[in-house]
Amino acid sequence: MNLELKGTVFTKSLKPVAILKDARTGRITMYELGEMIDGKKITVITRGEVVLQDEKEKYILALPGGGVKQPEGLDIKIRKEGENFYITKSDVNKAIAKTPLLLKQVKIVPHFSNGRPEGIRLSKVKEGSVFEKAGVKSGDIVKNVNGMSLNTPFQIFQAYKKLKDEKKFKVEVARGKEPVTLSYTIE
Question: Which CATH superfamily does the domain covering 79-186 fall into?
Answer without folding.
Answer: PDZ domain (2.30.42.10)
